Amino acid sequence: MILVFPVQHIFLMLNTLTADILELLKINPDSDLIVAVGNSFRTDDGVGPYIAQGLEQIKGLKLINAGYNPENIIEDVIKLAPQKILIIDAADFRGNFGQARIIPEDKIPQTTLSTHAIPLNVISGVISQSIKTAIYFIGIQPESVCLGEGLSAEVKKTADQIIEIIKKSLLK
Amino acid sequence: MSKNVKVNVEYLTRVEGHGNIVVNVKNGKLEECRLDIVESPRFFEGMLRGRSIFEAQHITSRICGICACGHTLASIQAAEDAIGFQPTEQTIKLRKLLLHLENLDSHILHIYLLVAPDLLGVKSFVPLIHTHNDVVRRALRMKKACNDVCDILVGRHVHPISAIVGGFTKLPKEKELDAMLEILESIQVDMAPTIELGASLKFPEFQRETEYVGLVNDTDEYPLLQGDIGSTDGLRMDKHDYKKITNEFIVPHSSAKHTKASRDSYMVGALARVNLNFEKLHPKAKKVANAIGLKPITANPFLNTAAQLIECIHSLEDSIKILKEFKNEGIDYAQAITVGLNENGQIPVKAGKGVGAVEVPRGILFHEYEVDNKGKIINANCIIPTGQNLNNIEYDMKKLVPEVLDKKQDEITLLMEMLVRAYDPCISCSAHFLDVKYIDC
Fold first, then answer.
1. Residues from A in contact with B at Cβ < 8 Å
2. In terms of Cα–Cα distance, which of A19, A42, A45, A83 is closest to A159?
3. Residue B43 Cα distances to A3, B420, B439, angstroms
4. Residues ≥6 apart with Cβ < 8 Å to A171
5. Which chain B residues contact residue A122 at CB under 8 A?
6. φ and ψ at residue A125, rounded to 5 degrees
7. How many Å apart are CA B306 and CA B200, to the nearest integer?
8. Which CATH architecture has domain B54-387?
């Protein structure tokens, strides 16, 4: 799934992870959950699953790789009842390739519901109506979401950074 | 009374693809009434030319993300028919299970997320998250369950991997049969409130007699995968004669061809199937149909959604029955087959023509392939259910508009939208473009 933002939400930023993102990436394995979203067969849209793969060996970390069907994880998330949910996905906010941004829930476009896609904000809405939790989205600007495997260099760099920061935060 | 009405819905929401509703009433006279289909051609039939029948199902599966299994099965059936291959009983049974799962999955999504908002008076299912969160969760839970069973059976919840010409590359193990049964039995728990919800929904009153077309057979089985083509007007013909039913023709406002059989138009889908084969439904499904007053022949297209609910019960119960039979009788794992592109000639191939006629969520789907003696596709034709329904939708619109002219414009617009949505159209899949002939000048 890729989030596409209308033009009025354009903010250009440097490709460094900002302080607020670094703060979000501090994960408490007892109470927090990471949800990775995206399609690994659509190049940079696979950034979420790539990060999930980088974290999956960490014991005790609550992690769900939702792939391209995030609606299918709702009941699992509700059962886990995390205090914080960090959703990581590709997001086209016309930023620099690989740039990461915190996406406020109300800024996630309500993509028209068809038979083929359920918008991410609907999924977060169902979860937040069911359990008391704080849901945060981190979007990473893709260079390409064309069919294909592997991430572009800038997106991979950001993904690797996020993996390392989360790992380090867990060691503390 | 609204003497002048102008409806221009561009584009209709809560359907797949892009279609516009155009209605123009001037001084009480209906001047325009159309469902414009503005989708681009898909070229799948062109893509199939020159490809092996052993890869056709993987290509045609991509026609639709909802009916991927249906296209897979119609493609396999057409290919096997063309080369004269007869699948085993076990293979046929597994294919029936696959079809049930897709129908169940698609119907649940349509009933809960695409139609229920209209009947509950909200603009989409998003507000239902706050007012009916348990209902939304139930819908997504049931949908996930179907996805999970499909994943076990064919390796993916969409675009199946293991269903191929000749059979299945992988057959479910004992513990996988148990897992599928457990998941489907969990849906049974959610089906009870689903029926309650369905029974509580008030559908618009509207009647228009039309011809209903679908698979028919002479057995006691509700036909979804095999049978002749039949209609409520008494037509019955072999699937190879499907073009005598579809009679496709071009209209200027649609990139999908229209169809007609005995009358000006016909309808396919859940309501057509229930109208044609009501007595063959699972007893539990029939019981619910009787409880909500759905009986053949129902001529209210809005009740296609109710027919989908009835089919959900049928598909769920029949899926469980199939799995229990496999549990009791066992699976012959020697039937697992890996063909690839048939490089080793594992399946004998000959030149011929074949037709697949399969009931998918939105109605009867036809694939026809002409293949050479190496199994290469020379010609392909795919006629999708929504394409067959478009003409019928327009005739419904033309009858409905004059009957509701006393309503406000917004109400008329909503009714038109609801009518089209009732057919659960998959508009982008329906595009079937012109046969272009190039003439040297």
1. 69, 71-72, 74-75, 78, 110, 112-116, 118-119, 122, 125-126, 129-130
2. A45
3. 28, 25, 21
4. none
5. 125-126, 129
6. -65, -45
7. 11
8. Orthogonal Bundle (1.10)
Per-residue pLDDT reduced to its tens digit, B298-347? 999 999 999 999 999 999 999 999 999 999 999 999 999 999 999 999 99
Write out the two tokens for B37. Answer: 């289909």
The pairs formed by B256-260 with CB atoms below 8 angstroms and a separation of 24 or more are B256/B37, B256/B39, B256/B384, B256/B386, B256/B387, B256/B390, B256/B427, B256/B430, B256/B431, B256/B432, B257/B387, B257/B432, B258/B387, B258/B390, B258/B391, B258/B394, B259/B383, B259/B387, B259/B388, B259/B390, B259/B391, B260/B391
Closest residue in A to B131 (Cα) is: A129
- How far is residue B367's CA from residue B389's CA, in Å, rounded to a whole number? 17
User: End-to-end alpha-carbon separation of chain A, Å?
Assistant: 32
Domain count, chain A: 1
Both tokens of A114, joined, read 């068809």
Taking the C-alpha atoms of residue A32 and residue A73, their distance in angstroms, rounded to an integer, is 15
For A150, which DSSP code?
A: S
Cβ pair A72:B140 closer than 8 A = yes
B426 touches B16 (CB < 8 A): yes
Nearest chain B residue to A113, by CA: B14
Q: Please give the model's pTM, rounded to 2 decimal places.
A: 0.91
What average pLDDT is seen over chain B?
94
Q: Are B61 and B419 in contact (CB under 8 A)?
A: no
What does DSSP assign to residue A113?
P
What is chain A's alpha carbon radius of gyration, rounded to the nearest angstrom?
15
Provide DSSP, B102-136: HHHHHHHIIIIIIIHHHHTT-SSSTTHHHHSHHHH
Domain span holding position A160: 2-171
The interface predicted TM-score of the complex, written ipTM, equals: 0.81
Using CB atoms within 10 A of its CB, is residue B40 exposed (0-12), middle (13-18) or buried (19+)? exposed
Beta partners for B9?
B21
How does pLDDT run across A96-150, given as a tens digit for each residue? 999 999 987 777 765 444 445 678 888 899 999 999 999 999 999 999 999 999 9
Contact assessment for residue B435 and residue B29, using Cβ atoms and an 8 Å cutoff: no
